[in-house]
Automatic annotation (TrEMBL):
InterPro entries named among the record's database cross-references: CenT-Element_Derived (IPR050863), DDE_SF_endonuclease_dom (IPR004875)
Protein name, UniProt field: DDE-1 domain-containing protein
MF annotations from Gene Ontology: DNA binding
A single GO cellular-component term on record: nucleus
Source superkingdom: Eukaryota
Residues of the DDE-1 domain: 79-201
Cross-referenced Pfam families: DDE_1
Length: 202
């Protein structure tokens, strides 16, 4: 019965945990202004296949779901990697995930000549400005070989430096407004969520 279950949860200090919602703190006016003005100009200049979006997400591969029954005193496992997700607007080009971990020479990589995905490392397993620059240069070389000029839309953060972007010949970097990415970041509209759902299922 529900009474027995309630007492059992209280006895074992079990509570329901829920994740924080980013949209509660978002700037809706900035999002609408950017969409109406800047993004409309991008659509006039670029074909949907040449409009890209990239975003990083943390993957806590040992963590329980955000909403679950667990001991109230139990802390969430913080073992994480970072994945950079990038694809174009019409979905015809999904770039390989860039995985960032803490250690460059992981035990699971021993004896493997070629990793299935690009892998980088730093002490915090976070994206850094230098790693992003290297990734952007590699993407620029790929687009130059394909003779394509594309625009890459990213959010403003310290890991996405705004300098040296003029040296890219085939990739133009565009930035989303501050505190509005939860509304207009394309990768946040279900792409990253599906990625994590399929990863958790496996």
């Amino acid at each position: 019965t529900s009474g027995w279950l309630s007492r059992w949860k209280e006895h074992h200090w079990i509570g329901f945990k829920k994740a924080h919602r980013e949209k509660d703190d978002a700037d809706t006016l900035a999002a609408k202004t950017w969409t109406a003005n800047i993004f409309s100009d991008i659509l006039k200049e670029f074909h949907p296949r040449d409009i890209y979006n990239a975003d990083e997400t943390g993957i806590y591969f040992r963590a329980l779901p955000d909403g679950t029954l667990a001991e109230r005193a139990e802390k969430k496992a913080r073992d994480r990697i970072t994945a950079l997700v990038a694809n174009n607007m019409d979905g015809s080009d999904k770039q390989p995930l860039l995985i960032i971990g803490k250690s460059l020479n992981l035990r699971c990589f021993r004896g493997i000549a070629h990793k299935p995905l690009p892998y980088k490392a730093n002490k915090n397993a976070w994206m850094t400005g230098e790693l992003f620059r290297v990734w952007l240069k590699e993407l620029n070389c790929e687009m130059r070989v394909q003779r394509r000029n594309v625009v890459m839309i990213v959010d403003i953060c310290s890991a996405h430096p705004q300098d040296n972007t003029d040296k890219l010949s085939n990739v133009r970097l565009m930035f989303l407004p501050l505190n509005a990415t939860s509304f207009i970041q394309p990768c946040d509209m279900g792409i990253i969520r599906n990625l994590k759902a399929f990863n958790r299922r496996k």
